[in-house]
Amino acid sequence: MKKLIIFLVFCLSIFYTFSQSTFSMEEVVRYLASPELEGRKMHSKGDTLAIQFLVNQFENMEIKPFFNDYEQPLCTRFTLMGKKNEICSKNVIAFVEGSDKNMKEQYILVCAHFDHLGTTQGAYFPGANDNASGTATVLYLANHFAQNPIKKSIIFACFAGEESGMLGSNHFITASPELLQKINYVVNFDMVGRYDQGGLCLIGEESSNVLKQTVKKLSKRERVGIKGSASLFLQGSDHYVFYKKNIPFLCFNTGTDRGNYHRPKDHADSIDYKGMKIVADFAKQVIEELGSNSKKPKFKKIGQKKAEIDNSEILDIIFANPNKFGFVYNFGIDCGNEITIFKTTPKGAEAGLLAGDKVIKINGKTFSCMMDFFDIAKTEKEKPYRISILRNGEEMEILVY
């Protein structure tokens, strides 16, 4: 009988280990970044498919919804060029209850946004790093903690609409303001798929002494090299809406990703999946440590110098000065391989540009997305600027001095 019990325990341990190892972050990234999901733009077919996929993942893990349902609907209304519009999506929220009866009413929120830029004017934006990688990491951690609960409860949130102005995370707060008193920490993942290009970047540990001490201790133990975030500064992702409510946070990131950021080449084959696991396993240790600390953390405001670690990408856009080409466009409308002129500057009008013209080349250089266009605007100095346009279906070139 004793041998039989030992054998059964052995079999159960093998099954448990196997079930733990079957979850694949790579498979999640490849699906979310696939052409089928069309870039997961809010209020699109791809957005709907992503939401259903996330719900199915939590159901398969047998993790409970945090609210009555996994899906938390949200809509926002806006006016664009005189026309009223409404876009809608859904957050996907799940929940693993804490194991300690005295601490389970304290929450750690583990989150990432799942939306991206979609498909526009022939350009497809897979968004593998931004932010299929962060979403896959949240699911990986959910799978682990569903089978290994910590003392505190964990909310797993996949937020919609981050690219449209952090709509999902803002809605989560405004719809349930009473939760803010129960959330001890926010752990956010945004672009964690480039570990091989610079290691792990963290921001937010200064928002709590506990966070700072935990990161310092575990990074030495786990031998993870950490540096300040090079692009995801304080206001750059969903953690910011919680920071404004005085909740300490950590944001995991793997650098600027300048060559791929908001570009069509941010695809699944470019992701460092081994590095993603290093980041996810380190985050797992951090969450376990935070989940065993019974004290409610004291929030600390991050100093301005630390909050703006590196805003060079934003400055690149500001000083790119695309208006030098003689036209103004609506930045709120994503461009693909062409830009529709909203209005002309005086020198553009003098050269012959018209509102409604579609710009397809600058000095013979094409672009596939807005970031490519900014690169051209920043670096192009050869004058006169040769602006290639489409007008009434015909291509023509106009010189702007």
Short recap of the structure:
The chain is of the alpha+beta class and about 400 residues long. The protein has twelve helices and 17 strands.
Characteristics:
Aminopeptidase; Pdz3 Domain; 2 domains; 12 helices; elongated; disordered N terminus
Question: What does it look like?
Answer:
The protein is an alpha+beta fold. The chain folds into 2 domains: 26-313, 3-Layer(aba) Sandwich (Aminopeptidase); 319-400, Pdz3 Domain (Roll), CATH 2.30.42. It is built from 12 helices and 17 strands. The chain has helices spanning 2-21, 25-32, 45-60, 128-147, 167-175, 209-222, 239-243, 273-291, 304-307, 312-318, 346-351, 370-379, and strands at 64-65, 71-80, 83-96, 107-113, 119-120, 123-124, 153-159, 183-189, 200-203, 226-228, 249-253, 327-328, 339-340, 343-344, 358-362, 385-391, 394-400. The strands form 4 sheets. Strands 1, 2, 3, 4, 7, 8, 9, 10 and 11 form a 9-stranded mixed sheet that branches. A 4-stranded antiparallel sheet has the order 13-15-16-17. Strand 2 and strand 3 (83-96) form a beta hairpin. It is elongated. The termini are far apart. 42% of the residues are buried. Mean pLDDT is 87; it is low at 2-21, 306-311 and 313-319.
Order of helices and strands: HHHEEEEEEHEHEEHEHEHHHEEEHEHEE
Overall mean pLDDT stands at 87
Distance between the termini: 92 Å
Number of contiguous helices: 12
Query: What's the total number of strands?
Result: 17
CATH architecture of the largest domain: 3-Layer(aba) Sandwich
Helical percentage: 25-40%
CATH homolog superfamily of the largest domain: Zn peptidases
What name does CATH use for the topology of the largest domain? Aminopeptidase
**Main beta-sheet annotation:** 9 strands, mixed
